[in-house]
Design brief:
Strand order of the largest sheet: 1-2
Distance between the termini: 39 Å
Structural class: mainly alpha
Number of helices: 5
Largest sheet: 2 strands, antiparallel
Number of domains: 2
Order of helices and strands: HHHEEHH
Shape: globular
Helix content: 40-55%
Strand content: 5-15%
């Protein structure tokens, strides 16, 4: 059970502080080298990042339907349950138009 707790804590920490994936990868390698072999070897595995997101062509553009409500509920259940128990309001801020999908990509959201 302790391993699940460490894995969950690391995922929450990486998400909360927006730690870059390469830094998380390096930390995971260090922890594995020091006996935590149960931990995943990559940030993508730790954070359960999807490897492929299906898109469709619409009006001459690539379109992504992102089920925002369900994704927010999943995130809240997964990472923030303890932190939001005493709150009845969560403030969200969005800026999506023209958001780069990846630092090295010319594709935008």
């Amino acid at each position: 059970m302790a391993s699940l707790s460490l894995t969950t804590d690391l995922a929450s920490w990486a998400s909360h502080f927006q730690v870059k994936n390469n830094a998380v990868d390096n930390l995971l390698k260090i922890l594995q080298k020091h006996g935590h072999t149960h931990l995943p070897s990559s940030a993508r595995s730790l954070l359960k990042t999807p490897r492929h997101i299906p898109t469709m062509q619409k009006c001459g553009m690539e379109y992504l339907h992102y089920p925002l409500r369900q994704q927010l509920l999943n995130i809240l259940k997964k990472y923030l349950a303890e932190e939001i128990l005493d709150h009845d309001t969560i403030n969200l801020s969005f800026s999506i138009d023209g958001l780069p999908l990846f630092k090295s990509s010319v594709k935008v959201m």
